[in-house]
Amino acid sequence: MSLEVGIVGLPNAGKTTLFTVLTGAGAQIPGKEHVGMATIEDDRLAKVAETVTAAKITPATIRLVDVPGTGAQLLGNLRQVDALLVVLDDWSGTRNPDDDLETLRLELLVADGEHVARRLERVEKQAKSGAPELKAEADELRRILAHVESERPLSEHGPLPPELEPLTTKPLVEIRNGPSGIDLQLEAELAELPEEEAAQFRDGPSALADVVRRLFEALDLVTFFTAGDRETRAWTLRRGQTALEAAESIHSDIARGFIRCEVIRWDDLVAAGSHAEAARRGLERLEGKTYAVEDGDVLNVRFSPPR
To answer: What CATH number has the domain spanning 3-43+60-91+170-218?
Structure first.
């Protein structure tokens, strides 16, 4: 599963330009005008792939959703994303990015209020059956709605019913389009050049590299690898998640049949030159389902195929 991120912003802030810069030409998903994929560059991946002579290299990706506007109905399309990129106008001289950020926060809050209210309406109707668990949920939803109506995000509320998919609990990553942040117009022009040539016109990392770094920090992500001669691939995972959850991200069948996980650090594998030599040197170890995957781990999950 790819990391999924929504892009929001007020009109003319540059969010569609950011979407184009991050996804590149041809990376938009066919039939979905405002959905695209961005590649997460990682120098370690190529080194691991070379070590195991992989026929195919697959980087980790970000699935980007560019909402064409604001408002509760449009923002509702982002309820299942992992984080939000908030694009702010810092280039025109006619807008205050801090004020725009507060406006967008309010839009997200209003959308959450409507989301909770709709859920409450359904549960209140169902609660007429007399079921105590539905009455309890309705009471909880009324408290949550009061919290939102007091203009406080749901990130400040505490545990929420699993049926809710709030927006105001998601990490917000500010992208200032202008002198104090990223010059998206320049990045759009550089995106048409070969990367080596484009790098000569930048003072720092590319927009994609900067956005990826900030998303990794906001979501506390790690990267792990699977390495074989057929395919070597990078994956993302929340820090603290387990080998079983890593297996689930690869394929649900692998997770269901999980037996054990062979783990080696990426640089140890590269230094050893092969899995066999790494094992001979004692650099590879066996871990169970509860092992917390670390950044840079190379995993080989042993599993029993489903019958």
So the answer is: 3.40.50.300
